[in-house]
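Per-residue structure
===
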Amino acid sequence: MSERYRVAGLDEMVVNQAVGASWHTIRSSLGVQAFGINAWTATEDGQQVIGEHDEADGEGHEELYVVLTGRATFTLEGETFEAPPGTVVHVPDPTVKRGAVGASGTTILAIGAKRGEAFTPSPWERTAEALAFWPGEEWDKAIEVLERHLAETPDNAGTLYNLACALARAGRREEALARLSEAVAGEDRFLELAQTDDDLASIRDDPSFPRA
């Protein structure tokens, strides 16, 4: 393969996450530096393929979504519409709340970057690299990745939460509880998520476990 270009299939760059849609790590796999680009494939009917979110408090990205296979149902600012293969959804306004669900096998390509600024990978994407180790229960490797990213962004609640999950799975109870407390203090949404997350089942009986 030439160093000047690369050719790859989506099935060559897949993270089959423990829960949720499979993630095609296009940007990191190909070394794309100019913009963010990833894809997700639903593994069951009615699955959330593009998580509900906006970009207002995050990276402020302008985003474009393309339905490659299957059928998706997009929701933008509360308005829902069907998106068959070939549908392109452009969201230039970072404040727009967006998300999509799809039937099993639905693949959605997502492209994004912030206008007028050099692109840098978002903290969530760098942290999500650790999810590749969940299916094989390689907790030490996941912890290594998460701790490295936490050193770069010590206040990132998402990194802290995922690290707590990996530590709990690895049997490192006290460390998991400490990181979980930090994550919950950083973002309220992790308090509710922690109540039912299977990754945290082994520490949920502890008196210091954060309660909703």
In short: The chain has a mean pLDDT of 92.
